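[SOLVED] Predicted holo structure with 6-deoxy-L-galactonic acid

Edit: marking solved, answer below. Original request kept for reference. I posted the sequence and ligand SMILES and asked for the 3D complex as structure tokens.
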Amino acid sequence: MVRGRISRLSVRDVRFPTSLGGHGSDAMHTDPDYSAAYVVLETDAEDGLKGYGITFTLGKGTEVVVCAVNALAPHLLNKDLGDIVGDFRGFYRQLTSDGQLRWIGPEKGAVHLATAAVLNAVWDLWAKQEGKPLWKLLVDMDPKKLVSCLDFRYITDVLTEEEAYEILRKGQVGKKEREEQMLAHGYPAYTTSCAWLGYSDATLKQLCSEALEDGWTRFKVKVGADLQDDIRRCRLIRNMIGPEKTLMMDANQRWDVPEAVEWMAKLAEFKPLWIEEPTSPDDILGHATISKALVPLGIGVATGEQCHNRVIFKQLLQAKALQFLQIDSCRLGSVNENLSVLLMAKKFDIPVCPHAGGLGLCELVQHLIIFDFISVSASLKDRMCEYVDHLHEHFKYPVIIKKASYMPPKDAGYSTEMKEESVKKHQYPDGEVWEKLLAAQGN
Ligand SMILES: C[C@H](O)[C@@H](O)[C@@H](O)[C@H](O)C(=O)O
Ligand SMILES: [Mg+2]
């Protein structure tokens, strides 16, 4: 039973100085400080449960998102949680259609990241009140109720509510076995942690050999800034992992369309499964051109971590512009919008390989992809979820990886809650960590 009226919404700017070690660096984000706008919802219910929500950001971008969360707060305050989740589609639309805020979106940019943070907190609270991990809440939910949480506006030309319901209804067959399979073996993952662009060759080598020892079989390497460097690093990693293991490349939007094709022709000898974000995330037809040109080289195109919303995913699918679709738990409008993308991907038969390179993204997105396998795709073919080995220790319910697979979380909620001590220390600018760093920089 859902209960309580939302009595308080707080949001904090939490940053980790990951740029100091080059962690998370790529061809476009050379100094990323992994950060989050961290939302906490409280209710007047006697259970004392709180909802925690994050959206992933980098450094100073966080302060803009924090402002946007505060601007959205009046939509939640004094609302009954039962009314919110009872008409979740209506509530999603209310947030994304705010007559003044939508002008700085709509459904994109800082205001949409803020929507994700706030709604992620609502889903966390809902799952906690039901006493289930989020993936299980979704798996057990009646398909009619599930589709009633989604906003089909702008996507009915490829997916109607009836079709979505039909996909979920069919997904009920064999669900129990797939849930058991997940609980026993987990969801397959790949690692990005060995080969951030700012890492030296020595670090890359060391992390790669450790990852091999830990049983990883799929690796992603950052490329795109300098061709000779890329050739050297890709050769190094391919030699270490051998010809059979899987290698992916990620250019983080660095190239023009023809440049992407030429550059990848030079890296083709290292047999990448995909090139991720070869060009601007907004360039749907550009992705289609690249996809087509890379078919003879056996290289697919992956994208999604910076796709603003379901409309961009719809067009990427319509234009056959991607072979691997990368949802993001904090870029899209929370679980609600991600579910509509999972269902479109199922309709177009494109594998979903979620993005998780960021603060807390592994914690959140594992719920969505485990649900996807159990209730939507029913397949692991060509599918894997990203894993990065950073900052899990700051979460109260950190991911559990066994044999390079995500083991389904068992605690109630969306795994979004951070340790209060970590939040206090890393709050910007007055947390202990930042006070020291800023003082050292003379600020
Ligand atoms: C700045 C970030 O670390 C990105 O480089 C990261 O999300 C990356 O694109 C990824 O695919 O994990
Ligand atoms: Mg990426």
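OP edit: Residues 24, 26, 29, 32, 192, 250, 252, 305, 355, 357-358, 386 surround 6-deoxy-L-galactonic acid (ligand 1) (CB under 6 Å). Thanks to everyone who chimed in.
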